[in-house]
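Hi Y.,

Following your request, here is the sequence exactly as I used it, all 180 residues.
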Amino acid sequence: MRRVLALPVLAIALLAAAGVGMAAGDAKGPPCTDISFTNGDVSRTSRTVDLTLFLPTASCPSATYALVVLDEAGDPAPLATDSEPGDGDAFFADGRDIVTLQATETAPLAADEDVCVYATSTFHGRIPDRAPDATADPNCVTLTQGSPGGGGGFCSASTARTAMTRGTISSTCISSLRPR
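Below is the corresponding structure, written out as tokens. Let me know if you'd prefer a different format.
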């Protein structure tokens, strides 16, 4: 009985010593894999989909963050994907982070045809989180050509980083980058 209990306790102690905590949100991994976005954080123009993911901590260098664009919910073949590795740096002074992704559709769709997008985090070969959740209904965000995903305006994180460095960032852009 002691050995059975000792192994999980040892595993947790090793993870804590390595600086890997358990996720506070819905992710099944460390906090750096807990991703979220709202409809206002994703947009589609021409054949390109832009997405800003929010993380409660700095991204993990051993994590990968991905955007998947589908023709419709449940379609197994993506129209486009993009992924970025974590860099370990926090975007916000309080330690939170953002990851920006941009995917270009390989086959052009009609201007009025919708696409469905979702994001994942991958950590050591596993997918600890998906946004929206796979069990959500719908389990992706629907976008129409030339519009943000149902929210207000779109402010990309790369634009925000440049504007913050130059001191020219607008309050609208700052508020759109606040995690929900």
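Residues 1-24, 150-180 have pLDDT under 50 and may be disordered.

Thanks again,
Q.
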